Amino acid sequence: MPPARKIGLFGGTFDPVHSGHITVAKEAADQYGLDQVLLVPAAAPPHKHGAAAAPYEDRLRMVELACQGDPRLVASRLEENRIPSYTLDTVRAVKGSLGQDDELYFIIGADAFNEITTWHRWEDLLREVQFIVATRPGHDYEEPPGARVHRLDTLALPVSSSEIRARLAAGESPPELPPAVREYILAKGLYRPSPAE
Ligand code: ATP
């Protein structure tokens, strides 16, 4: 029988992926001995307002580029064409592909975890999977009863995709973008300000 594996599932819009995401994924793998972390861009995130700024294929490609260099990190198409993409369905799909002794952890930032009780069928989700919650500057979280939570105290990483989009639109080059992702954004002309009407 193959040895039991520990898998992390890290969902997000990744619009674009940044060094905060990658640090969280790597530190979760280091601290909890994860063999693999799947980074899963959402096709259409039901708990975020409005559509993503960049198309799915670009967000996925940027995650692939950011994962290069650490074989534990893998970009996943699990939520491709799944609109809306509910985390509960994704977790169940991954669990269905795992062996009996494998363990699954859902990796999430403190801001998102603090809103978990607004997610689709959140009580089922809490029963289904354990969480690695990454602290995030300026964000506290409460643990709903019954949640299985492992805290990940990452180095303070005050970075967000929305700030990065704003700085790109202002013509800046945010240092929190992995170099290959920055090149991709420039080559594809993503996150430019919309032309004045
Ligand atoms: P936005 O600014 O558009 O809300 P974001 O930076 O939060 O984007 P998402 O793709 O929405 O990025 O995040 C995916 C997951 O990563 C979420 O669980 C979020 O909480 C977590 N995350 C993002 N940035 C950080 C960070 N700097 N530290 C810890 N967790 C983070």
List descriptors:
single chain, 197 residues, alpha/beta, 34% helix, binds adenosine-5'-triphosphate
How would you portray this structure in words?
This protein is of the alpha/beta class. The model has no long low-confidence stretch (mean pLDDT 92). Strand 1, helix 1 (19-32) and strand 2 (36-41) form a beta-alpha-beta unit. Helix 2 runs antiparallel to helix 7 and helix 3 (87-97) packs parallel to helix 5. It has a single domain, classed as Rossmann fold (3-Layer(aba) Sandwich), CATH 3.40.50. It has a six-stranded parallel β-sheet with strand order 3-2-1-4-5-6, sandwiched between helices. It is built from seven helices and six strands; from the N terminus they run E-H-E-H-E-H-E-H-H-E-E-H-H. It is globular, with a radius of gyration of 17 Å. The structure holds adenosine-5'-triphosphate. Adenosine-5'-triphosphate is lined by residues 12-15, 20-21, 24, 108-109, 111-112, 134, 136, 154, 157, 159-162.
Give the SSE map:
Elements: E1 6-12, H1 19-32, E2 36-41, H2 56-67, E3 73-75, H3 87-97, E4 103-109, H4 110-113, H5 122-128, E5 130-134, E6 149-152, H6 161-169, H7 179-188
Parallel strand pairs: 1-2, 1-4, 2-3, 4-5, 5-6
Helix pairs in contact: 2-7, 3-5
The structure holds adenosine-5'-triphosphate.
Strand content range: 15-25%
What is the H/E order?
Answer: EHEHEHEHHEEHH
- What would you call the structural class? alpha/beta
Number of beta-strand segments = 6
The fold-level CATH name is: Rossmann fold
Distance between the termini: 63 Å
Question: From the coordinates shown, what is the CATH architecture?
Answer: 3-Layer(aba) Sandwich
Bound compounds:
adenosine-5'-triphosphate
- The number of helical segments is 7
